[in-house]
Predict the structure of Coenzyme A disulfide reductase.
Amino acid sequence: MNTTKPLRFVIIGGVAAGASAAARARRLDESAEIILIERGPDVSFANCGLPYFIGGEIKQREALAVQTPQTLKAMLNLDVRTGTEAVVIDRPSKRVQVRSVASGATEWLGYDKLLLAPGATPLRPHMPGIDDPRIHTLRSLQDMDRIHAAAANATQVAVIGAGFIGLEMAEQFIRLGKKVTLVEVQNQILPPLDRPMTLLLEDELRRHGVELALGDGIAGFERGAQQVTCLLKSGRRVPADLVVLSIGVRPETGLARDAGLALGERGHIHVDQFMRTSDPDVYAAGDAIETHDHVGRMPTAVPLGGPANREGRLVADHIFRPAQAKPFPGMLGTAIVRAFDVSAGLTGWTEKRIKAAGLPYRTITVNDNHHAGYYPGAKPIILKLCWDPQTGFILGAQATGMAGVDKRLDVIATALAGGLTIDDLAELELSYAPPFGSAKDIVNIAGFAAVNTRDGLLDPVETIPVDPNIQVVDVRPAALAKAHPVPHAGVMNIPLPELRKRSAELDPSRPVVTVCALGKTSYFAARVLSQRGFKVKSLTGGLRATHDPRTPAKLPTP
């Protein structure tokens, strides 16, 4: 007879990381006592789906309640206590004090192992008028309900912050027929991305009626009888019936701090590669932790649902089968967002992040369709790749387009995790049939372009030069060049089929930059000229990627 006392595993926080850890723990140990503490009324709900219920894409609220305390008890024999908050951790005695939100009654719970998964709370900075009830943040189902109810009677909506959540909310309010102003203190939407990779999405937002106030932050709010007015730093006033703040999150680490656990520079709970805090019997996972970055091998904090779930699973593995637990590989920060018909996302590091860190890098931008161009429905996609010029290792990628963005980001995220190089990207064998892809996928094309750059066959530039000594050559057909001119005063139009015969029109003593819509034709032209003795660079990604996302590759057939 086994008389070993069952391990008691107490989990504080019942959404992504906490619920994942509890479920994995039960699958690994049927005898363990697993107690899940959640301050709110819901556990294991789909918080990433909240904007889509507000906009009506998700019809049933119940669909977001993935599990309930009752289903978790029935399926996994978990002791789930909602409406209960942890107030004190007594680490020497290995116990935590919890309190009922409704009654205020308290009790002490002993633990053998403790997991902190408190998450992060939306930022609500101290500024004039911030307490107006028409100003909302979005974290819980109850927040969602309040915004959903307020939207029913709203005409004008202001969304403050143009990150991932801000874009999702702006899209959903437009779907509801609202007039939307999207305010962002940076000079671009999606500040984590390089700005050229946001242009197509900016164009799409404007096309659907979203008013963008970029490079203009929020200074405060003015309460009126009918509306609240957003006071921007520029002096502009934006009236709104409803305001949603989406300017970032703050980790909820007060409990950990009061317990004396080590915190990172930005206040996140510091953990090791197995999610252990500075106390080996206390773990932490999810949006409140500081872990390490996979690319830079430095501390980082990335509040994303996918990593939170995997971190929770790792905690259970390390507690219940430590010999088999695999260390956390590091954060890639892979993320994606959709606004109407355009998506954009990233994995790993962007060019501006690499540049800010002072690391060596090269970058290339390529354009193609998400599947074979001759098959109906082909949609444009733009892919930007960064790599280490010394090793060829991939540092990061960004993609934007109307279809297939997720697939390409996932492929490169896998390549990043596996330590693949630009040569490996060029050689990847990816699934191909005309409805799904191309014989040379855009991921392969990015690899080709990167290898060509390394080998000196391609010398890319990201912007059209302003130096009058540089000859800018538009190699598109004359009709296309006239309809969508290159934004450069001295540009010459020499279509590629004419370039071999007309190359004498160019001065071989002056450098040349070739330009086209997508970047392919300009590369072909650069190869023609370089083999004729010219010093040539090519506009990477073409006009569509770096200047005007609406630039077509060809004129429509009448």
